Amino acid sequence: MKKIVTIIGARPQIIKASALSRAISKNYSNSLTEIIVHTGQHYDHNMSAIFFDELGIPKPHYNLNVGSSSHGKQTAVMIEGLEEILIKEQPHAMVVYGDTNSTLAGAIAASKLNIPVVHIEAGLRSFNKTMPEEINRIMCDHVSTLLFSPTKAGFDNLVNEGFNPNNNAPYSFDNPNIVHSGDVMYDNSLYFSTLSDQKTTLLEDLNLTKDSFILCTIHRNHNTDDSKRLTAIFKALHHITKQHNTTIILPLHPRTKKLMRSNIDKEVLENIKENTNIQIIEPVSFLEMIALEKNANLIITDSGGVQKEAYFFKKPCVILRPETEWVELVDNGTAIIVDADYDKIIDGTNMFLNTTSTLTFPSLFGDGKTAEYICEEIINL
Ligand code: UD1
Ligand code: UDP
Fold first, then answer.
1. CATH assignment of the domain containing 269
2. Which of 171, 208, 355, 372 has its CA 20 to 30 A from that of 254?
3. Do residues 242 and 347 share a domain?
């Protein structure tokens, strides 16, 4: 029996982790045992607890309750707590997801204890080191032993950074295994799509019908913390609702909620408040989010996960960032990068809403069984 410690902390990691937990309980409970550690980076009910029951994720064995603070402090407190748990649990490997401060803390704590790090979502790069996530990704990848890249582009990035694609087992820090594995979030989207149809009433509750609204999310620090950028985004959203006489649904991240009042130009903020076609709601559950994604006619977002889910559910996507790690979405012509530029946001939206040509969404993210594949690689480590 192999023991893994899984680190989660931020909303997307809780959702990602459900794919592996599900695979373990269905197929690998005789060979893999999982200890889940929640760092407490996200803690509001609808940023954390809401996902556990809904997605059938086992309750965390530990919660460090670190809460919010500066990057250095938050990461340091996590490392301290994780080190203690790893020493106590003595796992065969530690699993981390994505690129948050919880990912970085896990990678540092485990690698210093010579515990193999398994990084799920390895190799992704924005090539923009002013993004905190880019630092977290690079640091985590370079102390990992098993690196699972969801995309071919991610795998190629690792090769370009000096990882040898021809290493053979036994794998170690100095002889890591890089794999183009597919994406556990594609597994999740397939698995939870039907459940979302059966279990959610959000569309009815909000009086929404299919293809009659735009879904939007905003939380990236470059957008929320910069008054010019946040104002340009909201001004563009206001314009879009008027031009297309359409509704925009905006489940608002707590970071953005906190910064809206101080960082949006007063006049624009007043317009937003008075605009009944911009519906700002609390963050929703994952099944509700899928319902919104499946039924929107367009998605405008700065989220990494939501960009991809737009693709999974065959929706065009307007990306509120200067670049993306998910380059294949843009190469495929179904997503467009518009940064936080008022004109580009409107032009990008018009391009998709006015298009009559059919968009195609070829399979890019695996076969829906990535979690099973990863479990087997961990067992063989
Ligand atoms: C973090 C990740 C980001 C990821 C995002 C997913 C880092 C550096 N960033 O960004 O990569 O895309 O999570 O959502 O790890 N807050 C609450 N309640 C909560 C959580 C946060 O009110 O439950 C507020 C606090 O004011 C906090 C702010 O949101 O200071 C930011 O939270 P934090 O976890 O530091 O970063 P995110 O912006 O959520
Ligand atoms: N999500 C959710 N409810 C929301 C907003 C997002 O369940 O109100 C899900 C979304 O479907 C995706 C993940 O959270 O799976 C993305 O998280 P987020 O945008 O916070 O972070 P990122 O992916 O940018 O790191």
1. 3.40.50.2000
2. 208
3. yes
Domain containing residue 345: 190-354
Residues 302 and 162 in one domain: no
Query: For residue 112, what are the contacts with CB-CB under 8 A and spacing of at least 6?
Result: 83
The finding on whether 100 has its CB within 6 A of some atom of ligand 1 is yes
Q: What is the CA radius of gyration of the chain?
A: 20
Residues 321 and 370 in one domain: no
Please tell me whether residue 166 adopts helix, strand or coil conformation: coil
Q: Are residues 71 and 139 in the same domain?
A: yes
> What DSSP letter does each residue of 21-52 carry, written as one string?
HHHIIIIITTTEEEEEEE--SS-SGGGTHHHH
CA 133–ligand 2 middle distance (angstroms)? 15
**pLDDT tens string 239-283:** 999 999 999 999 999 999 999 999 999 999 999 999 999 999 999
CA of 306 from ligand 2 middle (Å) equals 6
Percent of the chain with pLDDT over 70: 100
Q: Do 209 and 110 fall within a single domain?
A: no
Say whether both 149 and 16 belong to one domain. yes
Instruction: Evaluate whether residue 170 is within a structural domain.
Output: yes
> Distance, CA 15 to ligand 2 centroid (Å)?
8
Q: Answer whether 286 contacts ligand 2 (Cβ < 6 A).
A: yes
Check if 99 has its Cβ closer than 6 Å to any atom of ligand 2.
no
**Residue whose CB lies within 8 A of the most ligand 1 atoms, among 7, 73, 100, 262, for a mutation test:** 100
Instruction: Quote the pLDDT of residue 355.
Output: 81
Average pLDDT over residues 357-367: 94
Question: What band does 168 get if pLDDT is binned at 50, 70 and 90?
Answer: very high
Over the stretch 197-247, which tens digit does the pLDDT of each residue have? 999 999 999 999 999 999 999 999 999 999 999 999 999 999 999 999 999
**Ligand 1 atom with the shortest distance to the CA of 305:** 12
> Could you tell me if 241 and 277 are in contact, meaning their C-beta atoms sit under 8 angstroms apart?
yes
pTM for this model (two decimals): 0.98
- Strands of 146-149's sheet in order across: 62-63, 32-38, 2-8, 93-97, 117-120, 146-149, 177-180
**What residues are labeled active site?**
219
In a domain, 278, yes or no: yes
